[in-house]
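To illustrate the input format used throughout this study, we show a single complete record. The first block contains the structure-token representation of the backbone; no residue identities are included at this stage. The design step must infer an amino acid for every position from geometry alone.
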């Protein structure tokens, strides 16, 4: 009887050890890992197409630095940078004929402090200075002031802009002073979507030189422009958006006319 009990105890002991051994070597189930959120695609516009106007934008390879804006009406803007990748020269062409150049002076932070303006004479291939403008910035490196001077020995101040921004960092107002005694205020509103030109380097500077409304959309997209003294110039903008949240279509309404642009982008490699 004792022998039977001993065998029973041994059997129970081996069973217990075998069970513990199985538990010890049983692989633990991996807890599910949350899906990693894919970063938003960074898009830059390459073409804006209307019924009679096509605007094409070209960039330095693998960057958002514009090197050209061309349109099928014969106008072209060429932009170049120095060896430190700072904005250097902007040139305007009409039917492949250079007629204007702007030379930029920058500081160590790559901010443009002064732009020297020249007219080009194609016959003599010469440049004539026609003036310059200086720029002031706030702590967020937004342009807050622009002063335009004539080309004279006294550097006569011709006009100035005083720019104000909303809490969303979009332009809200531009107070224009034309010397000696004229003033006007321009007001702007924006949507809360990704701006057409939000990733174009220096887009605001190009907006001073090129009359392309989409360049104002450096944070969000412009919805309205209102001129206090000349209401006939008031302009409205509306959009359709793509799946990435950028405008795919822009409708511009003003001066009793409507223009619709289809917008094409490319992905900026990060």
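Output of the design step:
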């Amino acid at each position: 009887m004792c022998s039977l009990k001993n065998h029973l105890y041994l059997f129970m002991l081996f069973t217990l050890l075998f069970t513990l051994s199985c538990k010890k070597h049983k692989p633990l189930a991996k807890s599910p890992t949350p899906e990693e959120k894919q970063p938003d695609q960074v898009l830059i516009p390459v073409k804006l197409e209307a019924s009679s106007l096509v605007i094409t934008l070209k960039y330095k390879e693998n960057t958002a630095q514009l090197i050209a804006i061309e349109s099928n009406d014969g106008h072209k803007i060429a932009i170049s940078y120095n060896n430190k990748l700072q904005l250097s020269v902007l040139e305007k062409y009409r039917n492949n004929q250079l007629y204007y150049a702007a030379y930029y002076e920058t500081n160590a932070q790559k901010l443009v402090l002064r732009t020297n303006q020249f007219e080009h004479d194609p016959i003599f291939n010469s440049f004539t200075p026609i003036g310059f403008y200086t720029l002031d910035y706030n702590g967020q490196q937004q342009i807050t002031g622009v002063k335009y001077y004539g080309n004279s020995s006294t550097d006569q101040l011709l006009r100035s802009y005083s720019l104000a921004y909303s809490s969303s960092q979009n332009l809200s107002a531009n107070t224009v002073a034309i010397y000696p005694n004229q003033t006007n205020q321009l007001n702007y509103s924006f949507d809360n979507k990704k701006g057409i030109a939000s990733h174009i380097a220096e887009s605001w500077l190009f907006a001073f030189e090129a009359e392309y409304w989409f360049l104002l959309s450096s944070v969000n997209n412009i919805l309205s422009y209102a001129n206090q003294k000349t209401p006939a110039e008031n302009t409205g903008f509306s959009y359709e958006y793509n799946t990435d949240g950028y405008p795919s279509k822009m409708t511009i309404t003003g001066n009793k006319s409507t223009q619709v642009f289809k917008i094409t982008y490319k992905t900026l490699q990060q």
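Structural context for interpreting the output: The longest helix spans residues 2-25. DSSP finds two helices and 16 strands in the chain.
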